[in-house]
Amino acid sequence: MPEADTAADPRPTDPARTDPARTDPARTDPARTDPVPAGYRPTDRTVPTRSRERARYDRELVHRLLDASYLCHLGFVRDGAPVVLPTLYGRIGESLYVHGSTGSRPLRAAGERAGAGAGPGGEGAGPGEEPGLPVCLTVTQVDGLVLARSAFHHSVNYHSVVVHGVARQVTDEAERRTALDAIVDHILPGRAEDSRRANAKELAATAVVRLDLDEVSAKVRTGGPNDEPEDADLPHWTGVVPVARTYGTPLPADDLDPAVALPDYLARLAP
Predict the structure, then answer these.
(1) In angstroms, rounded to a whole number, what is the distance separating the alpha carbons of residues 213 and 200?
(2) Helices (H) and strands (E) in the chain, counts
(3) 103 lies in some domain
(4) How many CA atoms within 13 Å lie on the side-chain side of 243?
(5) CATH code of residue 214
(6) 247-269 per-position pLDDT tens digit
(7) Closest residue by Cα to residue 104 from 129, 81, 123, 119
(8) How does 253-266 read in b/e, with b if 16+ C-beta sit within 10 Å?
(9) How far is the C-alpha of 129 from the C-alpha of 117, rounded, in Å?
(10) pLDDT tens-digit readout, 70-79
(11) Which domain holds residue 53?
(12) Ordered DSSP codes for 69-86
């Protein structure tokens, strides 16, 4: 089915993602003093081969879309074959962070130096290259089902971000801890402060990788169906079914002390 051709700035649909400071690079990267360009530079990998006018490179828009979700799909090549894994992420300024087990092959590959395991399958750094794993990270949120009179013109309203780059393993302990807090807070702002931080054993078992926001593009679809004029009189319902993320009432664990009150950041989620 053809991709829709209406684009506009989306509005976040997740009530948990309403902290306006999240989109300010200076808030999370105070050492940064260089001016931040308003947009990302288009590259061969971020410019679509068709319908180029639908691609967006506005930095503020990209940040807003990334901050409205918390699940991404991380694609890479393993043993010569493509692999795509769903995972949580966090954003700090112009970097995305993901984490996983230190035994994870792709996370190990993100830290390999030349000759330390890189091979023809595409994992790790090649000879003379910096350590890292070439990846493509995507974030997508569906905002509506677009029902046309013809099956051919059915579509969805959505917003998405695609990031190309090299994921590199984070070895600095302070950055690792900050990144892990960011991932937790990205899921639910305020949760990192309201939980026990990882201890030394847990940190030793956790790998963190960083993907810088250099090659980035966004796409957004809004609006109604694009039916053919000759189909206007067909007796089929047409329009948009809105889709939004909602949260139910938090359910306490069986062993939760009744004296522990529901925190404000969770109470705000209750329907």
Answers:
(1) 30
(2) 6, 10
(3) yes
(4) 14
(5) 2.30.110.10
(6) 999 999 999 999 999 999 999 88
(7) 123
(8) eeeeeeeeeeeeeb
(9) 13
(10) 999 999 998 8
(11) 20-227
(12) --EEEEEEEETTEEEEEE
